[in-house]
Amino acid sequence: MDNRTHILHRDPSHPLPVAVAGDGPYVIDSTGKRYLDASGGAAVSCLGHSERRVIAAIKAQLDRIPYAHSSFFTSEPAEELAEFLTTRAPGDLGHVYYVSGGSEANETALKLARQYFWEKGETARRHFIARRQSYHGNTIATLSVGFNPGRRAVYEPILLPVSHIAPCFAYRYAEPGETPEAYGIRAADELEAEILRLGPETVIGFIAETVGGATAGAITAAPGYFRRIREICDRYGILLILDEVMCGMGRTGRLFACEDEGVAPDLLSCAKGLGAGYQPIGACLMSDRIFEAITTGSGTFQHGFTYVGHATACAGALAVQKVIEEDGLLAHVRAMGAALDTALRARFGDHPHVGDIRGRGLFRAIELVEDRAGKTPFDPARKVYARLKEAALAAGLMVYPGGGTIDGKRGDHVLMAPPYIIDETHVALIVERL
Ligand code: PLP
Question: Which of 234, 299, 243, 305 lies closest to 269, judged by CA?
Answer without folding.
Answer: 243
